[in-house]
Specification:
The protein has 352 residues and is of the alpha/beta class. Helices cover 46% and strands 18% of the residues.
């Protein structure tokens, strides 16, 4: 029954994906692009998602859609909503649909490794964003997650010194969180005055509220925590909810990764505990994912790791520049607005 149900869900999801197929055209000069993109309407690509809840993932999807539109290709979006088995089935759906390329967005190595290999065996070009499928034929699109964590922690020490108790939000098995975890472990080892008082975290939906529930208990048990390292913005939102409810917003500081307009608003609130985040523009990362896949489709070479460099964003910067949304952040931080990564002379870009 479980297998039948899973396949039924997968079939439903496939039909839903077909319903939101995005035939993109009219933006690129097809004659200027190499085959098969000289006939872009005949090129089909699929985005197979594991995580989709939260502003970051909506912005990433927007970037994928806009770059696909600039190329003129036919994009299919398949969303497993954090069902690992369904995500693997969706890769098989994409293969059955006859797509030319697949972007795997997040997921678990153990569930995606074999599915990704099946796509490669079918002659499909594949890139993976923030999921390690352990396949040398599949480039990894990354935000330099280690550096995201490192820069956030360096800012935490700059603001708070080298002696404090920390709450740490972490869920193992997710590639970007695992890479940020390496930065945390190295940071603690190099700074013995920084004590991890509690570690917690969940990816249960809604992620922010689920983590807020855990953070409440952590604060009750450890009222002397003065810093939270929450290296995913949905984690940081949850911690902030708990800190605000406890009336500790002036006693605690939160350091995170990733950013959205909602995050900026939360960081700008009076006496907000959210002191800094380190991020790439998720829409830009989405664009880079499509560009890397397009290069592979035309026979070009893509590095095993395609890294989009991150930017430190502090609460003080947002207030000083009166930055209220992602558009204003991009205007005040040009390095955030575009990444000169996975580019070619023929690559059309989305309209700015």
């Amino acid at each position: 029954m479980k297998i039948i149900r899973r396949k039924a869900i997968a079939l439903f999801a496939g039909l839903a994906a077909a319903a939101i197929t995005l035939p993109m055209g009219g933006f690129a000069q097809a004659a200027d692009m190499p085959a098969p993109l000289d006939n872009p309407g005949d090129v089909k690509i699929a985005l197979v998602r594991y995580l989709s809840t939260g502003d970051f993932f909506q912005a990433y999807l927007s970037g994928v859609e806009k770059q696909a539109a600039a190329l003129g290709v036919d994009l299919r979006v398949l969303d497993s909503r954090q069902d690992a088995a369904l995500q693997a089935d969706m890769v098989d759906q994409a293969i059955a649909l006859g797509v030319d390329g697949i972007i795997i967005q997040h997921g678990l190595t153990e569930s995606m490794k074999e599915a990704a290999q099946r796509a490669v065996d079918a002659g499909i070009k594949v890139v993976a964003f923030d999921v390690n499928v352990e396949n040398p034929a599949i480039p990894q699109i990354e935000q330099s997650d280690y550096l995201l964590g490192k820069l956030a922690l360096e800012q935490a020490m700059k603001d708070n010194g080298a002696d404090w108790k920390a709450g740490y939000v972490y869920v193992p098995g997710i590639a970007p969180l695992d890479r940020r975890h390496v930065a945390w472990e190295e940071f603690k080892a190099a700074n013995p005055g920084i004590i991890e008082a509690a570690q917690f975290g969940t990816l249960d939906n809604p992620i922010a509220n689920s983590n807020a529930n855990q953070a409440r208990s952590v604060l009750q048990a450890n009222p002397d925590i003065s810093v939270f390292f929450a290296p995913f913005d949905e984690f940081a939102k949850g911690v902030k909810i708990a800190v605000d409810e406890a009336g500790m917003s002036q006693d605690v500081k939160i350091y995170s990764a990733d950013v959205s307009t909602a995050d900026i608003s939360a960081m700008r609130e009076p006496d907000s505990a959210w002191a800094a985040t380190v991020a790439t523009n998720p829409a830009v990362v989405g664009e880079v994912s499509v560009r890397a896949l397009a290069i592979m489709l035309t026979g070009g070479n893509v590095d095993a790791q395609v890294v989009v460099p991150p930017t430190l964003i502090t609460q003080s910067f947002l207030l000083e520049k009166d930055v209220k949304n992602m558009e204003e952040l991009s205007a005040n931080m040009p390095q955030f607005a575009h990444a000169d990564v996975a580019m070619t002379d023929w690559m059309p870009l989305p309209a700015r």
